[in-house]
Write a structure and sequence with these properties.
The structure is a single chain. The chain has 279 residues and is α+β, with helices and mostly antiparallel strands. It has 7 helices and 12 strands. A hairpin with a 2-residue loop joins strand 10 and strand 11. Helix 4 crosses helix 5. The longest helix has 24 residues. The mean pLDDT is 92.
Length: 279
């Protein structure tokens, strides 16, 4: 198999995004570019130059309908622990739409499913958050406990061949031993906690399924009441109309570039390949 370049990864990710966009528009499903992809659209009119993945998000009712109805003529497939087919072999609390025909991802260092998949687009559910920021912080503390347990279980699935050196192998062994007393049901508990407040029941929402940004992903639902089309690379895709407010809350002065030393790929542990049968 031939290893993919960053440009190859970006173009295949875009191909998946275009397919998702057309499906959502045809089926009245609301989505928005999310995270670094939203930032890239606003600041760069496309990918952040050193980035190679795509994130989107949907209010939970749209997300539920999307993961259960999405169909792709190109063979792209939704993986979600909340689907019966994958409930015992997906180890994250959000969904991924994966290419299954042309690409292969060696993700031994960030293992998330028992299935072999190719390039993916992350699809995050957005759930209701407490009206009070203090109450949201308390909710996040409960969520993080379940989230971290799930992450530790995932890490423990790494093969010893993925650990470099004796010390790394020893640390992985310890994690595998500790993981024996925990369960992947922590991910199901994480999802249950995400769903406690229905989207739209309060004036705030958050991405509780992926907690790296914590309270900084708590936004007013008003920022997502409407979506607009925004240029991204060679197409136009949906973004929340209140993107400026959401990006400021998440990143601060988001139009300022980070220092040179931080302008690096954030997902560099995975290896991406074209399958031999790819056109």
């Amino acid at each position: 198999m031939r290893e993919m370049t960053v440009s190859d990864i970006q173009q295949m990710s875009l191909r998946i995004l275009r397919d998702i966009h057309h499906f959502c528009r045809e089926n009245d499903i609301k989505y928005t570019l999310q995270g670094g992809t939203l930032l890239g659209a606003v600041r760069h009119k496309g990918f952040i130059p050193w980035d190679d993945d795509i994130d989107i998000a949907m209010p939970r009712p749209d997300y539920d309908r999307f993961i259960r109805t999405y169909h792709s003529e190109e063979g792209f497939t939704v993986f979600s622990r909340e689907l019966e087919t994958y409930k015992d072999c997906v180890y994250i609390a959000y969904a991924r739409v994966c290419d299954m025909k042309k690409t292969y991802v060696d993700d031994a260092l960030s293992f998330w499913t028992d299935h072999q998949t190719g390039i993916w687009v992350d699809v995050f559910p957005l759930d209701g958050a407490d009206e009070s920021e203090d109450d949201t912080r308390k909710r996040l503390a409960k969520l993080k406990s379940a989230w971290k347990t799930g992450v530790r279980k995932r890490v423990a699935l790494r093969p010893f061949s993925a650990a470099k050196g004796l010390y790394s192998k020893f640390r992985l062994l310890i994690k595998k031993v500790i993981s024996c007393v925990t369960s992947f049901s922590a991910i199901d508990e994480h999802i249950r906690l995400c769903r406690e407040i229905p989207y739209g029941q309060t004036g705030y929402y958050s991405n509780f399924a992926f907690l790296s940004y914590g309270i900084h992903e708590r936004h007013r639902t008003a920022v997502l009441n409407e979506t607009v089309l925004m240029p991204f690379e060679d197409g136009e895709f949906c973004v929340m109309k209140g993107y400026d407010e959401a990006l400021h809350e998440k990143y601060g002065n988001y139009m300022q570039l980070p220092p040179k030393e931080k302008q690096v790929r954030q997902h560099g542990s995975n290896k991406y390949y074209w399958k031999a049968t790819a056109n």
